[in-house]
Amino acid sequence: MAGKLFIISAPSGAGKTTLVEAVLGRLGWCYPLKKVITYTCKEPRPNEKQGEDYHFICKKEFKAKMEQGFFIEWSEAYGCYYGSPRSIIEAIEHGFSYILVIDRVGAEKVRKKYKEAILIWIYTKNLEVLRERLVRRDTESSEQIECRLVCARREIAQELEVPIYNYHILNDDFERSLRKLEKIMRRELGDQIAL
Fold it and tell me: CB within 8 A of 8, min separation 6: which ones?
């Protein structure tokens, strides 16, 4: 039985990474389910680890991988490249399931190439909530935060005008949001239990 590909997107600060880590903690032991480690040429934040959060590579190596067709999707955001390895599709065909955390542009690209992907959009009540979370995160300058909020405003407007996601989860209460995400994933994974 083939596995599933879950694509989770959200504006910066909506809590997608925290939700994904928590749902993997709940489901990773009973399903063959992993987070896709994507590639980037950005500088790691102090708390980010090589091979756990991203595969950090230089721009030259990233471009070489692009030319080799290594990525199922890639994009440029905030002045850096990000990409997802094509190899996950073969692994899905062999029964493994994955969570891919990417932006809306990447989600659209993957959906065109892998129509079975299940797209989940995480959002907050408003941009002020995003701003507060980004400030609290204390990993970006005020200019970088403003840039992320401009991108968030655009992504939110696009999803309202032309929805592409199968599911929408308002992340205003973490435990409630986590339960919703877990319920969606259990339903979609069905009886695909790890051996």
Answer: 16, 19, 20, 99, 100, 101, 120, 122
Nearest to 126 by CA among 98, 152, 90: 152
**Which residue shows structure tokens 């995480």?**
122
Asked whether 6 and 120 are in contact (CB, 8 A), the reply is yes
**pLDDT, averaged across the chain:** 90
**Are 26 and 34 in contact, with CB atoms under 8 Å apart?**
no
CA distance linking residue 185 with residue 170, whole number of Å: 16
| 48 Cβ neighbours under 8 A, 6+ residues apart | 54, 56
DSSP 8-state assignment for residue 172: S
The string of pLDDT tens digits covering residues 145-164 is 888 888 888 898 899 899 99
Identify whether the C-beta of residue 19 lies closer than 8 Å to the C-beta of residue 133. no
Record the pTM. 0.89
**Can you list the domains of the chain with their CATH numbers?**
5-189 (3.40.50.300)
